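Quick start: what a row looks like.
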Amino acid sequence: MALMSNNKLRLIYLSQYLMKNTDEEHPATMAEILSFLSENSISCERKAVYDDMEMLKLAGYDILYRREMPSGYYIGSREFELPELKLLVDSVQASKFITVKKSRELIAKLQRLCSTREGEKLQRQVFVSNRLKTSNESIYYNVDRLYGAISENSRIRFYYCEWDKDKKLKRRRDGARYFTSPWALAWDDENYYLIAFDNDKVKHYRVDKMQEIEATGEVREGRKQFESFDAASYAKRVFGMFGGETQRVTFEIDPKMIGVFIDRFGADIPMWKTEKGLFTMAEVEVSAQFFGWLCGLGGLVKITEPRETAESYQRWLEEIMQKYISE
């Protein structure tokens, strides 16, 4: 029994050592492996380690031997390769909805998925403190609660907040709860949003501004509206997640703007050229944020249809100009 336990323990230590300490650039010699096992009170011969490696290979470990210097044994492939982990680390760093503390915790866990030396390569690229991050620690758990309510087909209740002049989150509606049917979560402009159905309308809420989310157990509403709902398409037409009236808008654009429109609306956006110029069309929710995006493109883009939308944009620009005209 003692021998069997020792063999099982040796397998565990060997697998952990190889996963943590080796990669293609940093293989381990047999002498180093035996020394490590000895330090952990496991005495064995080389043949036993060879047999253990064969056993680990059968279990799915990609253990390879490098003959050129530095020579030795190493883990060839892992569940996550280093470039994949770098992408995940970059995503965690860029996410405003994850706090600095939680970002560091997640990155530390990602580092444990590669060798120690590869983890150092990730660590050298970690810049969290100076990035704009939320201070709301609960958002991490809000996301989990929302996914739970969606999987349970349950409506939710919660408090919704906004920033006040003292830079504190204040509950809207004088502290009254919101009730809605959650259907999807979307990540837009580095923020997490809940897309929900409420009072016969599709609405969205910033997850970091939601408090005390609870599933009510009542069956969600809006199933018919969400049968063919495309969250990505919704995010394209709702600028900055500020909603408005949905319209199909035609633009006359300078050829320099082709990439801008494809980046925003996708490669399948229609474009056509006439004697008057180059035109494109997209479905958007007309709001001040949409006009702000359009203004940033300057004179290289012009709304041609609907005429009412073009006039609304003109009035929006004139109202801004009036604020800068001297009396």
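That is the whole record. Residues 182 and 196 are 4 Å apart (CA to CA). The first strand starts at residue 63 and ends at 66.
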